[in-house]
Design brief:
about 375 residues, Helix Hairpins, 2 domains, six-stranded antiparallel sheet, membrane, CNGB1 protein
Amino acid sequence: QYMAFFEFNSRLEAILTKAYIYRVIRTTAYLLYSLHVNSCLYYWASAYEGLGSTTWVYDGEGNSYIRCYYWAVKTLITIGGLPDPKTLFEIVFQLLNYFTGVFAFSVMIGQMRDVVGAATAGQTYYRSCMDSTIKYMNFYKIPRTVQNRVKTWYEYTWHSQGMLDESELLVQLPDKMRLDIAIDVNYNIVSKVALFQGCDRQMIFDMLKRLRSVVYLPNDYVCKKGEIGREMYIIQAGQVQVLGGPDGKSVLVTLKAGSVFGEISLLAAGGGNRRTANVVAHGFANLFILEKKDLNEILVHYPESQKLLRKKAKKMLKSNNKPKDEKGGPGDPLIIPPKADTPKLFKAALAATGRKGDKGPLARLRWRLKELKAMQA
């Protein structure tokens, strides 16, 4: 039963979300049981000496358990106010009780402190980070609006995730365990990205471990138009809005959880792949970010997947540009616009002028048209 009791405690703590509450209750139960054992020992000592034989022993009146328990509490917690022992047996028993009480009480207090300290360790770390950041911003006289946004980020990140950086939580785990957690959390989202479909499964597993979670506040810019794209974004929770139009503030589309954007930026071979629109967070948004340098480090070990990804990226770029070309959208302006076709009768007159060797206005016009044709070519 002794071994089963501690195994039960271990298994119960493993499944509880707030195990510290159970630890406090268990430590309190240990204290109450110790007092119970001590009250039983006091009743045995009183019976051994004789009930009511001295002022120190239990006199046999009233509820014996309550009165003995009261004596045990005062002794173990060393409150004092007890009658002095008379015989040698009583003196030795009282001394042992005092020593046991001091030891047991200090152990109980230490356990309570450890349990409460472990339960509030995360909150203490969060408060320390918040205080250090506020002190830094006040020292450099950061504007109050920026300070408020930083505080909001700290508060929301802590309350939504229970931590500020989840990578710190997983860094001590073995590689295989981190991969198992990443697969359960992120694989369903990443596997739906069109760019990565058909790639090596192990490559996607390696990529899952490189994803970084970032929280954006309402109206925060995720990326801005004209920036060089160096990362891909996967929406874990929340929404983002793609802005465009003449003023750059019109909402073109709203992307929800599970959506992906910026994936082509990862495979821009020659660089210079700039963002074409502003993307802002619509409310609080939690995004996964995969950086280009991380993907390049992974693709070194998967050459076939690298070829496939580059091929898909080219097709995506062509499909993005194709509608504009078909509709005759605005392109690069021509230096010399194409001229209209020359009427057939006018062509015949110019040809006749050339055969006669005339040097009049038609000949000069004919020479000018030849010059324009050469420039057009």
